[in-house]
Amino acid sequence: MTGASLKRPSLKILSCVLAVGVAGCASFYEIPIETPIAAKLDVSAFQRVFIAGFISGGTDDVDGNLETVRLLRSQLRMKSNLRVVDADVLPLLDVASGRTEAGSSSQTREATLEAPEIKNEKDLQPYEHIFADADYWKRIGEEYQNPLIVTGTVLFTPHSQAGMVQREREVIDPLGRRSVQPVREYMERKGFILQEKFIFIDGRSGAQIYSEALREERLYNQNDNTPALSSYFELMDEIIPRFLSTLSTQRVRGSRVLIK
Amino acid sequence: MPMRLLSVVVLVAALGGAVYADARSDAKAQVEFGIAVAQRGLWKEAIYRWERATQIDPTYAAGFNNLAVAYEHEGMLDKAAEAYERALKLEPDNVLVRQNFELFKEIHDRSQSQTTQSQNP
């Protein structure tokens, strides 16, 4: 027997072993799944939700109070079983600063425009006592048939940062093949930070039942002229699923592998 | 005498092996049926099958992996974590189980961290 003749049967055996191995490896199945994440808050006692308004600050380019109220109401209408109370936004800043009589739910936009400037978290602190005023919230609750009340603070501030950034650059080699390589370079970027604190109040008692602070930031290339409002919506896209997961069960889509 | 002892040992080993092989093939049948029904969206039935499989053969990692996936799909996250851990204990180097577990942990940890970030006043 020569070495060559020995090679042929051993190749056959090898291919058989490989085939068996591949068949063995193929005994798995990818399957789509939806993982339900239970709501953090039991809202079964409520039939209505009232997005009352927010004490907002940061940039003047976006009215954080009105935009947040509008967006949350529309999202809740689509993705929640609660009925959304469609009422004027409460002038919370005026109520908290004593410029409007507490209990008045009429919107005073002019008063809001003259409101003191809130530029950072520290500026918000003098007004946060309003969220603990159970009598005030109870009165609001009575006015709107004891809903779940959502209020809180919104801070949308400009932000800039300079430093080393890793990005991907397409490279073409002498043979014309394209590849992507990571490149680190110094960049000056600007963008916005959105900090939202959602406070959930029981409209029947006026007591706070839950609160959640969320923060998102986004930086853009210095040359990109991203409007503040468009950045605000981008950041809210990140925040809204987490807000909704407080009130209703959310399903996270993905896939897993089943094995034989 | 030693020959007799040896034959007894061989017999016991063979019987043990046969019983093990039998348990594994029974468990495998349950696992395969579970996969078929899960692919049709019948997750409750799949859970029943894979629970049976893990009872029949508690050393069958695939059974625990599939059970974990089904628990995850049904929102029983604590049970899913337990089943994934059990599967990985049986087969620590199984890449598929590890990949499933990593994806599961991403969701589980996120939901946990959201809960810790929040406070009940």
Walk me through the structure.
The complex is a heterodimer of chains A (260) and B (121). Chain A has 260 residues and is of the alpha/beta class. Chain A has a domain at 41-159 and 191-249: ABC-type transport auxiliary lipoprotein component (Rossmann fold, 3-Layer(aba) Sandwich). Chain A has seven helices and seven strands; from the N terminus they run αββαβααααβββαβ. In chain A, β5 (178-202) and β6 form a beta hairpin. The model of chain A is unreliable at 1-26 and 103-113 (pLDDT under 50). Chain B has 121 residues and is mainly α. Chain B has one domain (2-117): Serine Threonine Protein Phosphatase 5, Tetratricopeptide repeat, CATH 1.25.40.10. Chain B has five helices and no strands. Chain B has helices at 2-39, 43-56, 61-73, 77-90, 95-117. Chain B is globular. The chains are: A alpha/beta (260), B mainly alpha (121).
Instruction: Determine the strand fraction of chain B and express it as a percent band.
Output: under 5%
Helix content of chain A: 25-40%
Question: What structural class do helix, strand and pairing data of chain B support?
Answer: mainly alpha
State the fourth-level CATH superfamily of chain B: Tetratricopeptide repeat domain
Query: Got a strand count of chain A?
Result: 7
> Unreliable stretches of chain B, pLDDT < 50, 5 or more residues?
116-121
Task: Quickly count the domains of chain B.
Answer: 1
Radius of gyration of chain A: 28 Å
Record field, number of beta strands of chain B? 0
Q: Give the % helix of chain B.
A: over 70%
Architecture of chain B, CATH level 2?
A: Alpha Horseshoe
- Main beta-sheet annotation of chain B: none
Distance between the termini of chain B: 79 Å
Class of secondary structure makeup of chain A:
alpha/beta
Gyration radius of chain B, in Å: 19 Å
Q: What fold name stands as the CATH topology of chain B? A: Serine Threonine Protein Phosphatase 5, Tetratricopeptide repeat
- Output the CATH topology of one domain in chain A: Rossmann fold
- The rough form of chain A would be described as flat
Beta-strand content of chain A: 35-45%
Mean pLDDT of chain B: 84
